[in-house]
Every structure is written in structure tokens, then in C-alpha cells.
Specification:
18 helices; binds iron/sulfur cluster; Serine Threonine Protein Phosphatase 5, Tetratricopeptide repeat; 3 domains; mainly alpha; two-stranded antiparallel ribbon; globular; about 5% strand
């Protein structure tokens, strides 16, 4: 693909991402401008979808319905688009049309009957790994190094840092993207590149067959699109390096089983025209640890809803790898949703777990207040209690998970409807 096309695609990405950020920040008028700029370059369902939600938030309900209808035209299989348009149509005073859209969403995916519960469950489970930390305007004001480390440690769950999604039989790998990997922020930093070169030499591989280069000056707003450390001079030109795509398509059948995002929304960047990364081999990233560096950032951090739930199940010792091998991806997606709801209701969101999390948060708050007030005795006592309670909290989660584990094991054994 010529650089020009990459540059246009990057510009489109920049505009629709800005639209999303501005919407989040509440600058709806400006967000609409950015979504429209994105659409002027290339019509994508997700830019129309983003525009629809922004127009709705801005009070232009009819405009929102129109924009969502364009998104649906481009992606008629996305259940969440119908579901969202139904809410807009309700607000427009057309419950008759809304009911049709709800029925359509449910016919595409039965989970849309309980999508609010699924989203709640995902928030509960994820939130328990990344609990809110006390707000400190200037972290440098915290005097105790131990407390600073404690605050940094919270919300930084190791379990999600471990390499590779455990769903080995996923045909819709997150490493299969529609569009070149560069567009998804998959770029290679200097140390990783050095490690890769050594690896290629050792294996007799040619760098140019596996890696591609893009001169950043060709794209506007490069500073917000690429991590600065990944921009390197190649042949005298500031460029980013990224893995090439392979050639085998995902295919329509497999694309139908594509997992959803953690908010149970469509992942528009894995479509039936997706192609795998050249480094995807036997269901695994072949360069994950090359050069003693973990994988490239976006590949390392991305987990869909299914991958996310299985990472949690693995951390709790509740993942049945053997049974998984016999299940289709559609079944695994179903198991993930059922397991997520069990984990939210009976483990992470249970009354005991919530009470224990609240006590932990209170102790941390007391420690911060003690530190800021210069009261070391209060701070150290709160930190001590926090550590003790943290261990108890982990034990409690272990116990709750063990009893929920029986029902989760039955999901693996029996599959899901
Ligand atoms: S994170 Fe999701 S899409 Fe990626 S490999 Fe795992 S199950 Fe598949
Ligand atoms: S580099 Fe590895 S983790 Fe990243 S997209 Fe390629 S195969 Fe996937």
C-alpha cells in the first residue's frame, strides 16, 4: 500500500479519535467537526457511530438517528448499533420503531436481552483489579516512598501484564486487524528493534519481509499518533517501524465469531477482511519476548471481553484449558459472558468483597491524609492495616472464587446455550 493511503488512513484515525476524546471531555460541538472531518476522508461505521452518540449527547436526537442509520448501513451485523439506535428512537417518541431495533439487536445476538447486566459485570470485575486511588493533586508531595509505591501499585494489576491471551483457539485473534498494523498503533521501539534484528540474523530471516517502515512526516499529527520513542531515523528520515501483515484472510465464517470489546461493543477493527500479523504463529505471538522486551504496546494491552474474562479465570485457577480446546470460539464467547456474570455477582461484586474493598480504600485514604498532614504515626498505622487487609481481601476472593468455580466448571463441561 503506498504511503499516501497510509497517511489518509492515519488522518482519518486521528480525526475520529479526536472526536471521541472531545466527546468524552464534553466539547460536543468540536467533536462533531472532527467526526465529520473523519467521514470526509473515508466513511467508516465507527466514525458514523461516534458522530451519532455525540449528536445524541448534544440533544440532536433526529441527527443521531440519521448518523446511526449510516453506521448500520455500513455494518449491518453490529447488534450494538441497533440497540443504541433503539434508545435514540425512544427519545424521539417512536417506541414502535425502537421495539423493532431492539428485536433486531437480540436476533443478531441474544445477549442484547441482558446487555446492561453484562456491561455492569465487566465494570465490577475490571474495577476490582483497578480500584480508584485517593486523589492527590501533586504525587511528589507524598513523603513516604512506601506509600507512593503502594499508590502506584494499586490499579496496576499484574495479571493483565502477562503475555498473550490464553484463548489459544481464537480464530479472531486480536493480532488479525483490518488495515495495516501501523493504523492500530502497533509500532516497534529501538530496543525491541535491536532485539528483533539479532533474532532475524539468528533465524536467517530478512527484516524487509517482516517489518515495514512509514515516514511520519507523511502523516499530520504524528506526535499524537506514535509514541515518540518509536520514531527513529531510517535512511535519514524520521519513521516508525511496524510488523507486516500476512495474506490469509479471517474469512466470513470466522469473522462471525469475533469477540466483543470489554464493554460488549463491536470491535470494528477486526472484520472479515482482516489479515493476521506475520508474527502470529501457531496461535501465539512469536516475538513476544524477543530482545528481553515484552510485546509491542497495543498488542500487549489489548484484550477483548473473552480474552479479559479468561485472563481473570486463569489468575483464579478456574480456566479449563483442556475443555477449551474442544469448544468453538462462539461457545467460548458464551462461556466468557456467563462466567463474567458469575464473577461479578458472587465474587468481585459480592457484599463481602465490596465491603472489604471499601475498607481497603478507606485505609489508603487515611494513609494519604496522614502523610500529607505530616502525621507519620497515623500514616504508618493505616499502611500496616492496609497490608493486612489486602492479604485478607485476596484470601476472601480466593474463597469466593472457589465456590463460584464449581458453576464455572459446569460451563466448561456443558457449554452455553
Ligand atoms: S484477546 Fe480476544 S480477540 Fe484477542 S486472541 Fe484473545 S480472545 Fe482472541
Ligand atoms: S506483534 Fe505479536 S502481538 Fe503484536 S500484532 Fe503481531 S502477532 Fe500480535
Amino acid at each position: 500500500m503506498p504511503h499516501r493511503e497510509d497517511a489518509d488512513a492515519l488522518k482519518e484515525k486521528y480525526y475520529h479519535s479526536m472526536g471521541a476524546i472531545l466527546t468524552e471531555e464534553g466539547d460536543l460541538e468540536e467533536a462533531v467537526v472532527f467526526f465529520q472531518k473523519a467521514i470526509d476522508i473515508r466513511e467508516t461505521p465507527y466514525a458514523w457511530y461516534g458522530l451519532a452518540r455525540t449528536l445524541y449527547a448534544a440533544g440532536d436526537v433526529a441527527g443521531a438517528v440519521g448518523a446511526m442509520s449510516r453506521a448500520i448501513k455500513l455494518a449491518p451485523g453490529a447488534a450494538d448499533y441497533y440497540h443504541e439506535r433503539a434508545a435514540f428512537l425512544e427519545a424521539l417518541g417512536r417506541p414502535d420503531l425502537a421495539a423493532g431495533d431492539v428485536a433486531k439487536a437480540v436476533s443478531l445476538d441474544r445477549n442484547y436481552e441482558r446487555v446492561d447486566e453484562i456491561r455492569w459485570a465487566a465494570r465490577v470485575v475490571e474495577g476490582s483489579f483497578f480500584p480508584p486511588v485517593p486523589f492527590v493533586e501533586d504525587a511528589a508531595r507524598i513523603r513516604s516512598g512506601g506509600l507512593r509505591r503502594l499508590l502506584e501499585g494499586e490499579g496496576d494489576a499484574d495479571v493483565f501484564r502477562k503475555p498473550s491471551c490464553p484463548v489459544l483457539c481464537c480464530p479472531a485473534y486480536c493480532c488479525h486487524f483490518t488495515g495495516r498494523l501501523l493504523l492500530h498503533g502497533v509500532t516497534i521501539g529501538p530496543w525491541k528493534l535491536q532485539g528483533l534484528r539479532g533474532h532475524f540474523r539468528e533465524k536467517g530471516l530478512r527484516e524487509e519481509d517482516l517489518l515495514d517502515v512509514f515516514p511520519v512526516a507523511e502523516a499530520g499529527h504524528a506526535e499524537s499518533l506514535f509514541p515518540p520513542q518509536d520514531v527513529m531515523k531510517r535512511g535519514g528520515v524520521a519513521s516508525v517501524t511496524f510488523p507486516r501483515q500476512g495474506t490469509s484472510p479471517l474469512g466470513r465464517d470466522l469473522a462471525g465469531d469475533i469477540p466483543k470489546g470489554k464493554d460488549y461493543r463491536t470491535l470494528m477493527w477486526i472484520g472479515e477482511d482482516a489479515r493476521p500479523c506475520v508474527f502470529l504463529s501457531g496461535g501465539r505471538c512469536s516475538l513476544y519476548d524477543v530482545g528481553d522486551e515484552a510485546s509491542l504496546d497495543p498488542c500487549a494491552s489489548f484484550l477483548c471481553m473473552t480474552g479479559f474474562v479468561f485472563v481473570v479465570l486463569r489468575s483464579l485457577g478456574l480456566m479449563d484449558s483442556e475443555a477449551m480446546g474442544a469448544r468453538s470460539m462462539a461457545e467460548l464467547n458464551g462461556i466468557a459472558v456467563e462466567a463474567l456474570i458469575i464473577l461479578a455477582r458472587d465474587v468481585y461484586g459480592s457484599d463481602e468483597a465490596l465491603a472489604s474493598s471499601k475498607t481497603l480504600a478507606d485505609e489508603l485514604q487515611t494513609a494519604v491524609e496522614g502523610d500529607l498532614a505530616g502525621d507519620d504515626v497515623l500514616r504508618d498505622a493505616a499502611m500496616e492495616r492496609y497490608r493486612l487487609l489486602k492479604t485478607r481481601h485476596e484470601d476472601l476472593i480466593g474463597e469466593l472464587a472457589a465456590s463460584a468455580g464449581k458453576r464455572i466448571a459446569r460451563l466448561f463441561a456443558g457449554g452455553v446455550g
